[in-house]
Write a structure and sequence with these properties.
It is a single chain. By secondary structure, the protein is an alpha+beta fold. The protein has helices at residues 3-13, 24-39, 60-63, 80-85; strands at 15-18, 91-99, 111-114, 133-140. It contains four helices and four strands; from the N terminus they run αβαααβββ. It starts with a helix and ends in a 26-residue tail after the last strand. The relative contact order is 0.21.
Length: 166
């Protein structure tokens, strides 16, 4: 991965692709752990349907979901180098999640980085293969103002953790 090429593409286009960001073994480990969590999930607690409409912000489960299911990554599990390549000075972790894109709804180990100003969506998976996606939302805290319109807001009790300090 050429750092300057990644940074330039991200800056000019608003997104960039890092192929083979994680290897197939790491992908399999993530999928297996997610599968275990889903198998142990208590359905009555988790009966909210995600959508992008404005009324999503009124869904109590959605609004209070930011601090549920805590994951603790080992020291080298998060690649700080990517944010340094993008020249972020103080990146904070907003959230991470797994999205299950089942067949008929909408490169293994690749990483797509999308700038927050880019309008994007993930369409219906029309293949016959499942397409799980792991997202890791990071924002630059240095010299920026986080929009009060975002549904997930940091608080004194639950601030967004710094990527470089944790």
């Amino acid at each position: 991965m050429n750092s300057e090429t990644v940074f330039q593409e991200f800056t000019v286009k608003g997104f960039t692709l890092i192929e083979n960001f994680i290897n197939s073994s790491e992908v399999e480990n993530l999928l297996q752990e997610c599968s275990t969590i889903v198998q142990n999930m208590e359905l009555p607690e988790h009966c909210s349907v995600f959508h992008t409409g404005k009324d999503q912000a009124r869904d109590e489960y959605f609004i209070t979901s930011g601090d549920k299911i805590s994951f603790f990554f080992e020291k080298d599990a998060v690649n700080e180098k990517v944010m340094k390549i993008l020249k972020y000075n103080d990146p904070v972790v907003v959230q991470s999640m797994v999205i299950f894109k089942h067949p008929e709804i909408g490169g293994l180990g690749d990483c797509v980085i999308i700038h927050g100003s880019v309008i994007h969506k993930s369409g219906k998976n029309t293949s016959n293969m499942s397409r799980p996606v792991y997202t890791f939302h990071i924002v630059e805290k240095n010299d920026t103002k986080y929009s009060k319109e975002n549904w997930l807001q940091p608080s004194e009790a639950l601030p967004f953790p710094s990527l470089y300090l944790n």
